[in-house]
Structure formats: C-alpha cells, structure tokens
Amino acid sequence: MTEHTTTVAGVTVDTRHWIGGERVASTETFTDVSPIDGSVLGEISRGTAMEAAAAVAAAKAAFPAWAATPRAERARLLHAVADGVEKRLEELAVVETHDNGALLRSHRRGVMPRVAHNFRFFADWLLTLDHEDFETRPSRAAAGRGHTNHVSWDPAGPSVLITPWNAPLMLATWKVAPALAAGNTVVLKPAEWSPLTASLLADIAAEAGLPAGVLNVVQGYGTEIGDALTSHPDVRRISFTGSVPTARRIAESAAANLTPLSLELGGKSPLLVFADADLELAVDLAVEQYDNAGQVCLAGTRLLVEEAVAEEFTRRFVEKASRLKQGDPRDEATDIGPNIHPRQLEKIDGFVRRALAAGARAVIGGHPEEGQYYAPTLLTDVAQDSEIVQEEVFGPVLTLQTFADEDEAVRLANGTRFGLAAAVATGDPERADRVTARLVAGTVWVNCFFVRDLRAPFGGSRQSGVGREGGTWSFDFYCDLKNTVTAPKGFKDHG
C-alpha cells in the first residue's frame, strides 16, 4: 500500500483519478467505507472543477483520433477490455462486494460476466450497425426519382457518464461500452459510495491498449464535480442513472449548452398477480424483488394481487421470504446483504416508520437489524396515495394491495409518477396482451423478472427517465445521425 493506493481483500486499487492516461491526485480526499462491517476501504481523491476540466480537456483532445479509428479497430480494443475484465473477474467481484455490499456469488456468476458482455456486445453491434440506403419517393420537394439517402452514425464527442452505487461496474460499462464503440471519448464519474471498480476499469482499459484520454475516470462528491462536468461546453452527451432530484439538476446544468441527455431514473414498479397465475411462480417473482437488499431501480416493490388469491399468496410469500438468509454478502449461503450506507438505512427506516404510523401493518420485517442491514419487509393496509406506495424506498420493502378486476389492477399499477418497469403474473396469454398494452412502463415482464437483452431499448416513462439506450438506440444517442442525399446526376465521368 502507498499513499495513493489501497488494498481490498488482497487487491490493490489506485485511489487517484485517471485523466489523459495518467493517475492524478487531488489535494483532498473522501473516505470510502464498506457496508459489510463499516471498515475503511480507502481515502479516495476528491475531485473538483479543476479535475473535471482536465478530464474533459483530455477527452476533447483524444476525440478526433478516436472518432477516426476504424470500426474494426475500436471493436478489437473493446474486446481486449472484455478480455481484461474476464482475466480479473475474481478481483473485480471481491472488490465490488466489499465496496457496495452486494452478494459475492452474484458478482462472480452474473454481474462481472455481464460487464465483459457489455463490451463484447457493443463491439459486435458496431460492426453490424448499418441502414439500408433508400430512394427518395417523388414529391414536390424531390420531383424526380433516384435520389439516394444514406444514414450514418457520426461520433458526437466527449461524453460524461454519471453512474449509481447499486451495481457500480455493470451500470458504468452499460454506458461506457456503447459510448466508446460509437467513437466518443468518455469521462466517467462513479458514485462516491462505491468508486473502486471504476478505478480498476481504468487500469484494465489501459492494459488493453485504449489510447490516453479515450476513457477518463474522476471521483468526487455530487455537485462538487458533477456541476462542472454537466455544464461544460465541450461535453456533447450526458448519460445519468440515479434519482429524479439529481436528474433535474443535471438537466438544468446541461440546458445552457443544449447538451443531449439520457436519464434512467427511479421506479416504483408494480408486480401484478392475477388469480389465474401460477401462484408458486408469482411468489417466487415477488420474493425476488428483495434482490440486492432491494436496491434495484427496476424492482417490483408494489405487489398488486387479485382478491381471490390474496390470502393464499400472502401465506406462501411469508413462508418463502422467511427462509431468506440475511448476512455477510461474502458468504455463499447469504441471500440478502447490507444496505449501502447509514444514510440509506436511515432513509429506508424513515419510510417504514412513517407508513406504520399512518396505519400500515408489517406482515414481516418493519425494522433494521444490527449493522447496515434492514429486515425484508412486507407492508399491507396501505393507501394508494400514501407515501410508501408513491415514493421509491430503495431498500428491502414491499407493499401489498389487492384488486378486483383488470381495470382496477391497471389503475393501481399506473397510479404513480413513475414508469420504469412492471411485471405481470398470469396464466392467460390474452390477458397478458391486454394488460401489458395498458401499462405505463419502459419494460414489462410477463411471468418473469429481470431478463435483459442488450438488443432491446431500455429506459423509463414519466419521471422514470428520458430516452432509451440499448442496441441501436444506444448508438442513436451517442452519435449524431446524418442523412446524406445524393442526386442521380451531376457527377463528372471519371471512367
């Protein structure tokens, strides 16, 4: 260990920024603490407007060469980054578990392999990205036939990517990979509660041969560095995953330069269980919403159950949820780890205490446990307009409401300001079609949950976000689309 590194479970992590292909230290630091046991993981360089400006300048300087790099070479380098992730998969998994408290078994088997897949997918998608040329139809504007339209994706420029703490590296690379594939250069700002794997990613990218300045990583607290990044006139794209209040601030900051935004925000997603559903499957889906200690923006935290099966559903749910093991996320047998930070735990408990005071009943849980753990909680007797139903808790807290028919189910499901996701459990395919067509959500799962194909668009409706990313939609965002119209005559004969 040196002044500018820390060691986490035997893995050395540099605590400085990565700017222009070099490590850069700040005069001040902030303390990174593990949610598992409160131990100090390291003192992290605390960026300011100065580091923000330096990172954007490095990205701007590197942009022309990177944008001009042939697609095949960009793809090769992204595959090299994926190789590096796979080579260091165990190190990344261990460090991230210590840093954000998510299950080590999940990091090993799902999350970190997905990180590598993010790079490989967008590298391969880049090589197939094309649009068939088409001929202009006759009109007053173009009276003759034969004018050819050619659509191209031009790299937009330096991109600022601001990522959350609940799945730090996976969600960061979900943005970094398509931005780099598109030919943009990147300034990544990881969440201050879980910054360590972003630093390791910088090392991996450098080892893979990514040119200096193409990927930059700056650390710091929210507005201290965030405002300087999002208001910078040389930034051409901003992608953010996080809360609605922070998104509003980013949008205001970006407005002066009309910088395009992609915002993936909060959710208060419903899980609708109809009487004709496979009840065992429905209960499994409901209990799955406690994944990552409830710190999942997509989670179906509002259980909406048809009256005819509500009692049986609740009985089975309590029986299954009571078998979940809460504890050290490094233990293979653990199902639910800690919540990320004392402030988050206090926020979760505040929501629950206010709900109980307002008349809600805790069927299970309803209280914090020792350390930074909150007992898996199910609240009933909650009103549709209550805070606990309307606001995102971001912890292991579910509510249960009943409905009489499809109309009431859809009304309750759509009855918040959010629209990120929804899930439907039903045995009737026609009902599934009817209900999903009426739900306001960016993603709807039928008899499943959390199945994510990178070819599909991802984002939220209402206050759950702006825009879509995934597949071609990512390139549409990270690029400036150009249409070139060529007349069938006018060229000199060069034959």
Give the secondary structure arrangement, pairings included.
Blueprint: E1 5-8, E2 11-14, E3 17-19, E4 22-24, E5 29-33, E6 40-45, H1 49-68, H2 71-87, H3 89-100, H4 104-128, E7 134-135, E8 148-155, E9 159-162, H5 168-181, E10 186-189, H6 196-208, E11 215-217, H7 222-230, E12 237-241, H8 244-255, E13 261-264, E14 270-273, H9 279-287, E15 302-306, H10 307-321, H11 342-357, E16 361-364, E17 377-380, H12 387-390, E18 397-403, H13 406-413, E19 421-425, H14 429-438, E20 443-446, E21 465-466, H15 471-478, E22 479-486
Parallel strand pairs: 9-10, 9-12, 10-11, 12-13, 14-15, 14-19, 15-18, 17-18, 19-20
Antiparallel strand pairs: 1-2, 3-4, 5-6, 7-8, 8-22, 13-21, 16-17
Describe the structure.
The chain has 15 helices and 22 strands. It is α/β, with parallel strands linked by helices and 495 residues long. The strands form 6 sheets. A 7-stranded mixed β-sheet has the order 16-17-18-15-14-19-20, with helices on both faces. Helix 2 packs across helix 6 (196-208). It starts with a strand and ends in a 9-residue tail after the last strand.
Q: Give the % helix.
A: 25-40%
Biggest beta-sheet profile? 7 strands, mixed
Q: Which strand-content bin applies to the residues?
A: 15-25%
Mean pLDDT: 94
Distance between the termini: 68 Å
Provide the spatial order of strands within the biggest beta sheet: 16-17-18-15-14-19-20
As residue ranges, the low-confidence spans are none
Look at the helices and sheets and give the structural class: alpha/beta
Q: Could you say which overall geometry the principal axes of the C-alpha atoms support?
A: globular
**How many individual β-strands?**
22
